[in-house]
Amino acid sequence: MGTGGKPADDGVAAAHGGVRAGVAIHGTEGCPVVAASTVHDGPITGVNWTHVGDTHTEEFRARDPDAVDRAEGVPTPTSVVDLGDERVYRYDRPRDGACACRIIEELDCPIADARAEDGVLLLTLHLPDLERLRDIVSALDGTAERVEVRYLVEGSARGDEVSDRTLVDRGRLTDRQCEVLRTAYRMGYFERPRDANASAVADALDISPSTFAEHLATAQRKLLEETLAEN
């Protein structure tokens, strides 16, 4: 990795300015935001926190306030501000040594973004090399059922060479979203000029054009939101 005396060509990250990693943590116990996400329609976003003494204060944004109230294992949240299409909540709980985010921060790794969806904690991390990513996964062993690295983006190379290779996890897509993308691609929907319009692809899928547009937009957002996000 180019650290600890190892040759730099042990891995690609050290020569390419670090990595951006998307990590999915499955089976976290006692995380109120994750618990709320199991009954929430769509992701819970804007997760951030602070520590004062033995108290952990966490804040998050939710579009479905009723789902937050229905969630089991979630401390009674305080509504901080209503933003119209979503609401910001905050709650306090004792500091927990088994908290995945705290474990990562104690490795001197700030968390760039945190959200929860369908009972999975999704984190974005900016790391100096792949060795640090291995340290994080190892540290989370026993805290979660499974830690999944969903993608890696290498930083730009030194000098004139540029590296921007990305591993995309198609597992983020539902079977239906994969089918929509595959059919649209096969029929030439993404060509310029298009070989097939939205109505033609929707007919092939036996769905309405509006449903096709919804599936397509969701699939594209899932695949592109992280890889196109600014560091």
TrEMBL record:
Superkingdom, natural source: Archaea
Database matches in InterPro entries: DmsR-like_N, HTH_bacterioopsin, WH-like_DNA-bd_sf
Alphabetized PANTHER family for the sequence: DIMETHYL SULFOXIDE REDUCTASE TRANSCRIPTIONAL ACTIVATOR
Limits of the DmsR-like N-terminal domain: 17-154
Protein name per UniProt: Helix-turn-helix domain-containing protein
Keywords assigned by UniProt, alphabetized: Transcription, Transcription regulation
Domain HTH bat-type, chain residue ranges per copy: 173-225
